[in-house]
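Quick start: read one record
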Amino acid sequence: MTGASDAEVIALLARYQCPTPFHEVRTRFLGNIASPVMAASPLETLKQLWGGELPEFDSMEAVNELLNALIAGLWNRLAEHQSSRNPFRLIRFEVAQTREGVKHLALVRRQELDGFVEGLFGPEKHINLPERAHKALGVLAEIRAMLAGVINLLDDSSKPAEPDDLKDMVRNIQKLTIIVETEMNTAILSCTRARRQLLEQIPATKPTLH
């Protein structure tokens, strides 16, 4: 199943009861691909989708199926977004103009943001980021706070949410989506450039040949 499609990846995540939704899996992988943490590893990121340990498998074939779908397929597809010619896009879907529908949209966007930051930082609490990536993360943090505010508002049934209000919220979240994509892509390109420069500067020591 090398190069498995998104639909095949989603089916596998469901089969192994992955607690991380697909839209968040995408941004976690993306953050980890761009991460300046040199020890970042696809397998470790994969384990974190299940809380730190891979699910149980019936056979080695099942293990390979999951690895091929998520790493050879999804991970490698997302790695192609490290170029300005191929910017990353968040998932698009039909939004019901209801309280629940708008809340779901805000929740998906917040989870995508959280996934990106989780992937970028990995197990680290602090990382050194290039200035442009650092600024981008600041904007993303502000947008995350706005989305959390929308979710809290819609969670509170005592607060009215008229059809026009909901329509405005959807429009605003769609505008925020464009900003989130722009800032994520800025962070990705900035980190990719910085990592490339760092790799070019690592001094090499000639190995002793026996």
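The mean pLDDT is 91.
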